[in-house]
Amino acid sequence: MFFDRPAAGSRSLLVHIVQPHSELSSSDELNELVRSAGLKPVGCVTSSRKFPHPATHVGQGKVEEISEQAATLCAELIIFDADLSPSQERNLEVAFNTRVLGRTGLILEIFALRARTHEGKLQVELAQLGHAATRLVRGWTHLDRQRGGSGRSQGATAGLGGAGETQLESDQRMLADRTRRIHQRLEKVRRQRHQNRKSRRRSDTRTVSLAGYTNAGKSTLFNRLCESRVWAADQLFATLDPTLRQLSVPGIGQVVLSDTVGFIRALPHSLVDAFHATLEEVAAADLILHVIDVSAPGRDERIEQVNKVLTEIGAELVPQLAVYNKIDACRAAPHMDRDESGRPCRVWVSAATGEGLDLLVTAIGELLADDMVETCITLLPHEGDIRAKLFELGAVLSESTDDQGRIQMDVRIEQKELGRLR
Q1: Pairing of strands 11-17, 77-80
Q2: 159, 150 contact by CB (below 8 A)
Q3: Which of 1, 46, 88, 154 is within CB 3.0–4.6 Å of 158 for a Cys-Cys bond?
Q4: Range of the domain at 57
Q5: CA 179 to the chain's CA centroid
Q6: In sequence order, what DSSP letters do the residues of 368-386 get, joined into one string?
Q7: What predicted TM-score, i.e. pTM, was given to this entire model?
């Protein structure tokens, strides 16, 4: 007996698993994920269990209810808002005679649609291969080679060579070969990124990374700050491939700002592992801008989920500035909060309207500055290159020229930059 998976379509019946004690336990996020994957949700069934059923995750009664709903709504795909084990996925597909997809599989589908660069496609394929490797059991067994060659002419003794290679073993071997090749290519990418970071450190270029829950407005903020045209959309995982741009910060000069993939509740570990080369940009940053959707339900739990992923990638010790975005949605005024030591800790902005971005740039400058000093510098007429450098750093507060052509400049600048100029 063999088992072939049913064909899938776009009409999707959603199965929302209620998470106890969770503010994010809402079917809204599942709906957004499904639409982001280009699928059409046609209905939703809610299930609440303390412990998942080992065979079907939801229990026999709920399986029958889902089966009836799927038949009534002509659903071509059933999507669970939970991670299903390979055996649970197969048991459910047999019970429904309909393709079943778990949360990880759904997120992988979205990532496959979003990947545009060669590196991004490799990372997504690596995660997909890791996910598929555990779901080969009993699949395509009718394609097994039942007899192996004996090394002699075919005849009565042709079966002496054993059972031969099964289709499952062949699939596993091909998956392992492809996975190894992708790992090798991504290792080259990782080394190249490491070399680029070393070059930035040698030139003393500061790096700032955007991080946050998906659809918090990171790309819109990135475009506003850098006057860039990175694709931004009101959907989950709109940005997948990392983007680097320069940002001018007064008193600091040019810093590198990076926009990376958004995080989400229960982000699959396979994705964290596959995107490790990309997420290293966040871990190696001098400052993380944690972008938070101030209008989102379950805001505090979203913050906790992002911090959990930052810990997984080794970025928990990187200084962090909380950027509360979308204040236009709740009619709040832009402002900056400081901690007990007087350093900026929270900035309230609107990336859509540009409100509060001047406060954000000021906060970035204060957090990146090692030792800012305000002083007066006198330059001779032939020292125009130093004057130009001070303006490039955005350090000039005011300037005046006396009768002899000497330039008096009031500046706010890092102590080490001042030492270099002197």
Answers
A1: parallel
A2: yes
A3: 154
A4: 11-101
A5: 21
A6: H-SSEEEEEEEE-TT-HHH
A7: 0.70
Q: How far is CA 89 from CA 82, 196, 258, 289, in A?
A: 11, 43, 38, 38
The token pair that represents 381 in the structure block: 């007429």
At 140-199, the pLDDT tens digits run 444 445 444 545 545 544 444 555 556 667 777 788 888 888 888 878 877 877 777 677
User: Which residues, 6+ apart, have CB-to-CB distance to 391 below 8 Å?
Assistant: none
Cβ neighbours of residue 199 closer than 8 Å, sequence gap 6 or more: none
| Alpha-carbon distances of 172 from 133, 149, 167, rounded to whole Å | 7, 21, 9
Token pair listed for 127: 């995660």
What single string gives the DSSP state of each residue in 144-173?
Answer: -------SS-SSTTGGGG-S---HHHHHHH
Same domain, 353 and 247: yes
Cα(105)–Cα(95) distance, rounded to whole angstroms? 19
The CA-atom distances, in angstroms, between 286 and each of 201, 312, 368 are 10, 18, 7
Q: Of 101, 117, 144, which closes a domain?
A: 101
